């Protein structure tokens, strides 16, 4: 996890030493890429996309273009005049600005003002050449009522499975918090609430694995005078963790002091050592000994089903005092050590920040015949890029299986203590990212990743200090005390989709760039779910924007002609399923933590709002239509359940 150095909570008046050090070093690269690497697809510059066009929308300009084969994404540029200068369009997400695919809605605009746009393809080499001919857009001012969009669902299509990219994995603070025995923020029992949080994401979101930092922290691993490794601390942590029924993603970090070249090169409040090893041989011995120990304690077949990820964000100076070449050696030493014990164990990396270093690691593995089962990287404030050109190119070049693509950290912001994390704005953002990864089969050939792991499950998190108050802009889907934030409800609504995916196409003002949708139906056609949302990447609109509100007409075809359907409606917006608004109304910002009465009221409000929409009847052609308001930000979920036939 990393943060933008200039952003944080304006109410935080004191900064601890760890946070000050973080802000001085975050964002600095640990090293430049190695020279002379051969180009896999997706690593070299590509031509600009063709067919760039603009559409003037209410409160935004919509851009579309033709995809470029081999591109990982696209970087939109904007200017105030046709002659430029054209600058990358910054939607204030604090991280990668390139988007994985069109269309794109620019809502960082003023109605009636003209803007000029160009687009570049994005690869590991960065942005390529801009489109030669710019297009102009001029956003419309809002009228007296929200513009209309149409969501057309084809329930007659054969349903296809939804790849569970949203719940295969989730992030969490270091797992040793499961055995804390000291009072936590707001006098919370950290160990109990942390375990409860993992149970909630398991049961309500279907999460299966958890990725956390610090497998080699001092409370987990110690080194004896004879050089032996003692994993008894890790045993205590993993024994407790595995009672949750979840599986760990074993992140091989940080460096034990006895093995570190610079034991004083640390990060976070808990002083994880981000140093290269003094001895690469000893690093390999540590990774091998860990693998042997885990197999002996938990069973060879059990551990063979876990992923091992080598390090965290080594492309940032704050996380790694070595070079890219030294990271490649770190990775190679670790993967060979682990697989010398059990070649079934899946190992990957680089676990990088800002979608960096994936191509170089694949190239290193290709040139040196190094095993790699998955690539992992991170991004925030945007939908993830599409790394399939690189993994497919690697598979073609080596004859090996294509590595999986695991986004082992992803979220609405990389910035600690940012209010967007507690906001409704973040809820449609989550659905936008997940739908982007799910793709639109068959045009994008299915999912562009195998996991998109939200960072993190709970606000029990101490990287730059413990939570100072209940709503402090924490990364968690759940607060201290395990209240569910709007982002949690977004994932819950995704998990509630029943059956297989059927086509859902959006048309109208802001279609597929602001307003998006997913739909499913059960195999017998007895139930149809429609999930639609309205959101923008533009984080200047955290508090909403009336010009972007919409009214959605949901048209469902392929139903049983003449059949009656009971409809239920679930909502997430500023006044529904928004526990932060409940807290603001209760306290008015006067207190850091709730009292007993306020806790009781917050827990009573901690639910996904649901109401009956009514009963509707499909026409003779098997279709029906419903209308819902769709504010920005906002989510609506409709469930149609057949109750009677013609």
UniProtKB/TrEMBL annotation:
Entry similarity comment: Belongs to the glycosyl hydrolase 39 family.
GO molecular function, a single term: hydrolase activity, hydrolyzing O-glycosyl compounds
Official protein name in the record: Glycoside hydrolase
A UniProt-annotated Pfam family: Glyco_hydro_39
One example of a Gene Ontology biological process annotation: carbohydrate metabolic process
Positions annotated as active site in the UniProt record: 313 (proton donor)
Xref: InterPro entries: GH (IPR017853), GH39_cat (IPR049166), Glyco_hydro_39 (IPR000514), Glycosyl_Hydrolase_39 (IPR051923), Ig-like_fold (IPR013783)
Keywords, alphabetical: Glycosidase, Hydrolase
Domain Glycosyl hydrolases family 39 N-terminal catalytic: 150-607
Source organism of this protein record: Streptomyces nanshensis
Taxonomic superkingdom: Bacteria
